[in-house]
Design goal:
globular, four-stranded antiparallel β-sheet, alpha+beta, about 35% helix
Length: about 200
Protein backbone atom coordinates (compact mmCIF):
# COMPACT_ATOMS: atom_id res chain seq x y z
CA UNK A 1 0.00 0.00 0.00
CA UNK A 2 1.61 3.24 -1.19
CA UNK A 3 -0.07 5.43 1.44
CA UNK A 4 1.07 3.16 4.24
CA UNK A 5 4.61 3.22 2.91
CA UNK A 6 4.51 7.04 2.87
CA UNK A 7 3.34 7.09 6.47
CA UNK A 8 6.17 4.77 7.44
CA UNK A 9 8.96 6.57 5.60
CA UNK A 10 10.47 7.67 8.90
CA UNK A 11 10.99 3.98 9.71
CA UNK A 12 12.10 2.72 6.31
CA UNK A 13 14.42 5.70 5.81
CA UNK A 14 16.31 5.35 9.07
CA UNK A 15 19.96 4.38 8.64
CA UNK A 16 23.02 4.13 10.86
CA UNK A 17 24.98 7.31 10.17
CA UNK A 18 28.69 7.22 10.99
CA UNK A 19 30.04 10.51 9.58
CA UNK A 20 29.08 13.84 11.13
CA UNK A 21 29.62 17.52 10.49
CA UNK A 22 31.10 19.79 13.15
CA UNK A 23 27.77 21.57 13.67
CA UNK A 24 26.50 21.45 17.27
CA UNK A 25 23.26 19.79 18.30
CA UNK A 26 21.06 22.07 20.40
CA UNK A 27 19.92 21.31 23.93
CA UNK A 28 16.34 21.51 22.67
CA UNK A 29 17.01 18.74 20.15
CA UNK A 30 18.64 16.58 22.84
CA UNK A 31 15.65 17.15 25.10
CA UNK A 32 13.34 16.01 22.30
CA UNK A 33 15.42 12.87 21.78
CA UNK A 34 15.30 12.01 25.47
CA UNK A 35 11.56 12.63 25.71
CA UNK A 36 11.01 10.37 22.70
CA UNK A 37 13.20 7.67 24.25
CA UNK A 38 11.27 7.84 27.51
CA UNK A 39 7.96 7.54 25.65
CA UNK A 40 8.85 3.90 24.89
CA UNK A 41 6.95 1.09 26.60
CA UNK A 42 8.54 -0.73 29.51
CA UNK A 43 7.64 -3.87 31.43
CA UNK A 44 5.04 -3.01 34.10
CA UNK A 45 5.73 0.67 33.39
CA UNK A 46 8.89 0.60 35.50
CA UNK A 47 10.98 2.81 33.16
CA UNK A 48 14.38 1.57 34.40
CA UNK A 49 16.32 3.43 31.72
CA UNK A 50 18.88 6.07 32.62
CA UNK A 51 20.55 8.37 30.07
CA UNK A 52 23.97 10.02 30.23
CA UNK A 53 24.49 12.80 27.69
CA UNK A 54 28.15 13.37 26.85
CA UNK A 55 29.56 16.30 24.91
CA UNK A 56 33.04 16.30 26.40
CA UNK A 57 35.44 15.47 23.58
CA UNK A 58 37.87 13.60 25.83
CA UNK A 59 35.15 11.35 27.23
CA UNK A 60 33.75 10.67 23.77
CA UNK A 61 37.21 9.61 22.70
CA UNK A 62 37.51 7.33 25.74
CA UNK A 63 34.19 5.68 24.86
CA UNK A 64 35.35 5.19 21.26
CA UNK A 65 38.53 3.54 22.52
CA UNK A 66 36.44 0.89 24.28
CA UNK A 67 34.18 0.11 21.33
CA UNK A 68 35.90 -1.62 18.39
CA UNK A 69 33.15 -0.53 15.99
CA UNK A 70 32.58 2.87 17.52
CA UNK A 71 35.34 5.28 16.40
CA UNK A 72 32.69 7.65 14.99
CA UNK A 73 31.45 8.60 18.45
CA UNK A 74 34.73 10.43 19.05
CA UNK A 75 33.79 12.89 16.28
CA UNK A 76 30.05 13.05 16.97
CA UNK A 77 28.47 16.19 18.39
CA UNK A 78 27.45 14.14 21.40
CA UNK A 79 26.93 10.66 22.69
CA UNK A 80 24.11 9.28 24.79
CA UNK A 81 24.94 6.30 26.94
CA UNK A 82 21.78 4.34 27.62
CA UNK A 83 21.86 2.48 30.91
CA UNK A 84 19.41 0.47 32.98
CA UNK A 85 19.05 0.49 36.75
CA UNK A 86 18.50 -3.13 37.73
CA UNK A 87 16.59 -2.54 40.99
CA UNK A 88 14.14 -0.35 39.06
CA UNK A 89 13.39 -3.01 36.42
CA UNK A 90 10.29 -5.20 36.58
CA UNK A 91 10.97 -7.99 39.09
CA UNK A 92 14.57 -6.71 39.02
CA UNK A 93 15.11 -8.90 35.97
CA UNK A 94 17.96 -8.18 33.56
CA UNK A 95 15.93 -9.41 30.58
CA UNK A 96 13.16 -6.89 31.22
CA UNK A 97 15.74 -4.14 31.67
CA UNK A 98 17.39 -4.92 28.33
CA UNK A 99 14.07 -5.04 26.48
CA UNK A 100 13.01 -1.72 28.00
CA UNK A 101 16.28 -0.03 27.08
CA UNK A 102 16.18 -1.43 23.54
CA UNK A 103 12.69 0.02 23.04
CA UNK A 104 13.90 3.41 24.30
CA UNK A 105 16.94 3.28 22.00
CA UNK A 106 14.81 2.58 18.93
CA UNK A 107 12.55 5.54 19.79
CA UNK A 108 15.65 7.70 20.16
CA UNK A 109 17.05 6.58 16.80
CA UNK A 110 13.77 7.17 14.95
CA UNK A 111 13.31 10.61 16.50
CA UNK A 112 16.90 11.53 15.55
CA UNK A 113 16.13 10.55 11.96
CA UNK A 114 12.91 12.60 11.93
CA UNK A 115 14.85 15.64 13.21
CA UNK A 116 17.38 15.20 10.39
CA UNK A 117 20.12 14.04 12.73
CA UNK A 118 22.38 11.09 12.12
CA UNK A 119 22.78 8.43 14.81
CA UNK A 120 24.46 5.08 15.31
CA UNK A 121 23.71 2.43 17.96
CA UNK A 122 26.87 0.99 19.53
CA UNK A 123 26.46 -2.05 21.74
CA UNK A 124 28.07 -2.17 25.18
CA UNK A 125 26.26 -4.95 27.08
CA UNK A 126 26.90 -7.92 27.32
CA UNK A 127 30.62 -7.37 26.64
CA UNK A 128 32.00 -7.28 30.18
CA UNK A 129 35.14 -5.37 29.24
CA UNK A 130 33.02 -2.64 27.62
CA UNK A 131 30.61 -2.55 30.54
CA UNK A 132 33.48 -2.13 33.02
CA UNK A 133 35.16 0.55 30.91
CA UNK A 134 31.99 2.66 30.52
CA UNK A 135 31.01 2.16 34.16
CA UNK A 136 34.43 3.32 35.33
CA UNK A 137 34.56 6.24 32.90
CA UNK A 138 31.14 7.54 33.94
CA UNK A 139 31.55 6.60 37.61
CA UNK A 140 28.25 4.79 37.80
CA UNK A 141 27.21 2.25 40.42
CA UNK A 142 27.31 -1.51 39.91
CA UNK A 143 23.51 -1.51 39.98
CA UNK A 144 23.40 0.55 36.76
CA UNK A 145 24.19 -1.38 33.59
CA UNK A 146 25.51 0.44 30.49
CA UNK A 147 23.54 -1.09 27.63
CA UNK A 148 24.60 0.96 24.61
CA UNK A 149 26.16 4.21 23.45
CA UNK A 150 24.49 6.25 20.73
CA UNK A 151 26.61 8.54 18.53
CA UNK A 152 24.61 11.59 17.40
CA UNK A 153 25.38 14.49 15.07
CA UNK A 154 24.35 16.22 11.88
CA UNK A 155 25.20 14.01 8.89
CA UNK A 156 28.39 15.28 7.28
CA UNK A 157 26.96 15.62 3.76
CA UNK A 158 24.35 18.10 5.00
CA UNK A 159 26.96 20.64 5.99
CA UNK A 160 27.79 21.62 2.42
CA UNK A 161 30.10 18.75 1.49
CA UNK A 162 30.03 17.53 -2.07
CA UNK A 163 27.74 14.66 -1.12
CA UNK A 164 27.48 11.11 -2.31
CA UNK A 165 28.44 9.98 -5.79
CA UNK A 166 26.81 6.92 -7.36
CA UNK A 167 28.69 4.96 -10.00
CA UNK A 168 26.50 3.21 -12.55
CA UNK A 169 27.55 0.44 -14.91
CA UNK A 170 24.36 0.34 -16.95
CA UNK A 171 24.25 3.21 -19.50
CA UNK A 172 20.55 2.72 -20.24
CA UNK A 173 19.47 3.63 -16.71
CA UNK A 174 17.23 6.71 -16.53
CA UNK A 175 19.30 8.72 -14.06
CA UNK A 176 16.62 11.29 -13.29
CA UNK A 177 14.02 8.59 -12.63
CA UNK A 178 16.51 6.84 -10.37
CA UNK A 179 17.22 10.09 -8.51
CA UNK A 180 13.50 10.70 -7.97
CA UNK A 181 12.93 7.14 -6.78
CA UNK A 182 15.76 7.41 -4.27
CA UNK A 183 14.53 10.81 -3.07
CA UNK A 184 11.13 9.29 -2.35
CA UNK A 185 12.61 6.50 -0.25
CA UNK A 186 15.66 7.96 1.46
CA UNK A 187 16.45 11.00 3.61
CA UNK A 188 18.00 13.83 1.62
CA UNK A 189 21.55 13.31 2.89
CA UNK A 190 21.56 9.75 1.52
CA UNK A 191 20.50 10.68 -2.01
CA UNK A 192 23.53 10.85 -4.36
CA UNK A 193 24.26 14.36 -5.58
CA UNK A 194 26.02 13.08 -8.67
CA UNK A 195 25.77 9.99 -10.88
CA UNK A 196 28.75 8.80 -12.87
CA UNK A 197 28.32 6.38 -15.79
CA UNK A 198 31.14 3.88 -16.16
CA UNK A 199 31.84 1.73 -19.22
CA UNK A 200 31.98 -1.24 -16.85
CA UNK A 201 31.92 -1.74 -13.11
CA UNK A 202 35.32 -2.43 -11.55
Amino acid sequence: NTNNNENLRFIFGRRSVRAYSTAPVSEAAVQTLLEAAMAAPSAAGKDPWRFVVIRNRQKLGAIAAALPNGPMIAKAALGIVVCGELPAAHDQQLSYLLQDCAAAIENLLLSAHILGLGACWLGVHPREDRVRHIRTLLRITELVIPVAAIAIGWPRTESGAAGLVAFLGEPEIDVEALRRALAERLPDYMVPRRFELLPSLP
